Amino acid sequence: MRTLFLAALGLVLAMGAASADAVVGQKNRAFRPTDVTINRGESVTFTNNDSYIHQIYVDGLFDSDEKAPGENLNETFPASGTFQVRCHIHPTMRMTVHVR
Ligand SMILES: [Cu+2]
Questions:
Q1: What pTM, to 2 d.p., does this model score?
Q2: How many CB atoms lie within 10 A of CB 18?
Q3: Domain presence at residue 28
Q4: Distance from the CA of 79 to the center of ligand 1, in angstroms?
Q5: 2 found inside a domain
Q6: H-helix or E-strand containing 5?
Q7: pLDDT given at position 20
Q8: Per-residue model confidence (pLDDT) at position 68
Q9: Counting C-beta atoms within 10 Å of the first and last residue's C-beta, which end of the chain has fewer, N or C?
Q10: CA of 35 to the centre of ligand 1 (A)
Q11: Domain carrying residue 63
Q12: In the beta sheet, which residues pair with residue 35?
């Protein structure tokens, strides 16, 4: 029982470690904020704060599953540059991740 608890605690801590050098929400069919800056190798957590499905992709980098309300996506940006983040479902949704 104690082992199971420690394993669960370890999982929670690992999830915490994986999350968020920057946090971006999806609300009212827009990314907020529309601009973040991180260091190479850091990650961004995207959260669907709407009551309908969103999606998140960067050409050549990642292309997520559909995300239900309340779901997250944590993505690491391994290279420096400027990346346009978009949603397949709502083509007007855009934001920029600057990676130093
Ligand atoms: Cu969307």
A1: 0.81
A2: 11
A3: yes
A4: 25
A5: no
A6: helix 2-18
A7: 77
A8: 98
A9: N
A10: 17
A11: 20-99
A12: 96
Domain count, the chain: 1
pLDDT at 9: 47
Distance 41 CA to ligand 1 centre (A): 25
Please tell me the distance between residue 11's alpha carbon and the centre of ligand 1 in angstroms. Answer: 29
What protein residues have CB closer than 5 angstroms to ion ligand 1?
54, 87, 89-90, 93
Q: Residue 86 is inside which H or E element, if any?
A: strand 81-86
Amino acid present at 85:
V
Chunked in runs of 10, what are the mean pLDDT values of the chain (100 residues)? 51 52 98 98 98 98 98 97 98 98
C-alpha to C-alpha distance for 44 and 32, rounded to whole angstroms: 12
The CATH number for 86's domain is: 2.60.40.420
Ligand 1 centroid – CA 42 distance (Å): 23
What spacing in Å lies between the alpha carbon of 73 and ligand 1's midpoint?
13
Strands 43-48 and 72-76: antiparallel
Residue 5 placed within a domain: no
> What number of residues does the chain have?
100
